[in-house]
Write the structure tokens for this entry.
Amino acid sequence: MVHVTRGFTGRHPATDDRLPPGQYLTDDFPVLSAGPTPAIRRDEWTFSVTDGDQALRSWTWDEFMALPSEDITVDIHCVTRWSRLDTTWRGVAIDDLLADVDTAAEYVLARSYGGYTTNLPLEDLLDGKAWIAYEHDGEDLPAEHGGPARLLVPHLYLWKSAKWIKSLDLVEDDDPGFWESLGYHDYGDPWREQRYQGD
Ligand SMILES: Nc1nc2c(c(=O)[nH]1)N[C@H]1C(S)=C(S)[C@@H](COP(=O)(O)O)O[C@H]1N2
Ligand SMILES: [Mo]
């Protein structure tokens, strides 16, 4: 007699390999926001890179849309334990935004419209690892998911992917952002389960 169990036939090793410890797969796209969704008009939107008091770069929406953009397919992992595989986005690589920028800073504080912040090492935004994304699933990024544009850093827990991004501030110190100052991990690597400070 042959017993075939659902648990056995339903396993997809390739998928399991892509699921960090303690995460489960979902096809939904839950909305997780610490406050209300800010209404940001594209004709009033600006995005800047700052270093100290200096704005190194600043773009209007039209200027930003004229930058080279790329299609992005990535897995995303939320600290609340859901993961989605092969999510699709369009956006501008941070490498392109920071090209030719000279800085001694080793960290970035991402700042959002509405006041949210999150801290990251600068190197985690470079070498094709992070984008400012303005489309998801072939559509304009919905406001509740961070539209007009959000930071996308898929190799770290999703709270690092600041929605409604306003600026990237190059900073010398790794000062905690919003969730980090409330106990979330300063780095947030899902593969090392760095959920909370001390993990
Ligand atoms: N500006 C801003 N960005 C944010 C948040 C937020 O509250 N405000 N929440 C973070 C958290 S905790 C998560 S899990 C993801 C959720 O993104 P989503 O709502 O598109 O799923 O956004 C992150 N970026
Ligand atoms: Mo989150």
The longest strand covers residues 82-93. The chain has five helices and eleven strands.
